[in-house]
Request: fold
Amino acid sequence: MTEQLYPFLRQDGAGTDTGTDEADAGALLEEVRRSTREKAHEIVALRRAVLDRDGDRLTGCAARLARAFASGGRLFVFGNGGSSTDAQDVAALFLNPGELEPGEPAQPLPALALTTDAAVVTALSNDVGFEVVFARQLAAFGRPGDIALGLSTSGDSPNLIRAFEEAARRGMVTVGLAGSTGGAMAELGGGIDHLFVMPSASVHRVQEAQTTVYHALWELTQRAL
Reply:
């Protein structure tokens, strides 16, 4: 299977020096191992940095989310590209949570990803503009006390900015997950109630850290409830 996926790792190619091939493959595999270790160390360090800086703020945010849910609030989640699938993961996590611990069921909470309705997203994109695909949905569904959670690796997505502005106008609790320095999300006029920034220039490390953050928020919210 490895040879089928990575034919350049073959060690017995016809008409080649097998010893040289083995040496080249060994060097390549060692480089893969080195890169994997480096990436693992990077994400562990990033998660630790976010926890050290934002641990108390995560607990405070979860307490606010718990109050919103207890008062009948609903969670609306959104993002673009890879962050759109993360948004769907967040909604599924809150809506169909399984167990906190073995034998300890978690409470299902009302959550909806605004990225899943292709007809709505494409209609708004085609008829109005892609920058309104989330804001218009919040305008239709959002009420005071609901929660708007947006994910972006850059923090600069115009449609997220418009969505947060709409959510703020409607008295919703706003939560943002961004990367690097937070981008436009960090500079948003009126601010985002709870903004968590993953301080990394790597899209991959940012998304991995954001996954940890929203799972922590979910568990802390469950505990607070």
